[in-house]
Design goal:
Helix content: 55-70%
Structural class: alpha/beta
Oligomer: single chain
Shape: globular
Largest sheet: 3 strands, parallel
Number of strands: 3
């Protein structure tokens, strides 16, 4: 079934918005100093941010994890609380990165 013009336009606008959002996130990482940034995300719009950050953490959470995000991250956490715990307990982070 072909998509309506409205649906096609909506899809194009969403794609453009995600690209813009992705570049804004990556630019913020650069502005903050990528070598000092820990980035966390789960969507395709987080890929550039995770790649630029000193440490990129993909999170599974209740939402789905984009495949590109999974491959861009340095490690994967089941949720944001676990990801933040890695920062509060650096030995856990070091052990996770070693394996």
């Amino acid at each position: 079934m072909p998509k309506s013009r409205a649906t096609q336009k909506h899809s194009i606008l969403n794609t453009a918005r995600r690209r813009n959002e992705s570049s804004q996130k990556a630019a913020l990482v650069e502005e903050l100093g990528a070598e000092r940034v820990v980035a966390m995300g789960n969507g395709a719009n987080d890929v550039a941010m995770l790649q630029r950050a000193a440490l990129g953490i993909a999170m599974l959470g209740g939402e789905r994890l984009a495949t590109a995000c999974f491959t861009a991250a340095d490690l994967v956490a089941p949720d944001i609380v676990t990801a933040l715990d890695l920062l509060l307990f650096p030995r856990r982070l070091i052990a996770t990165l070693r394996t």
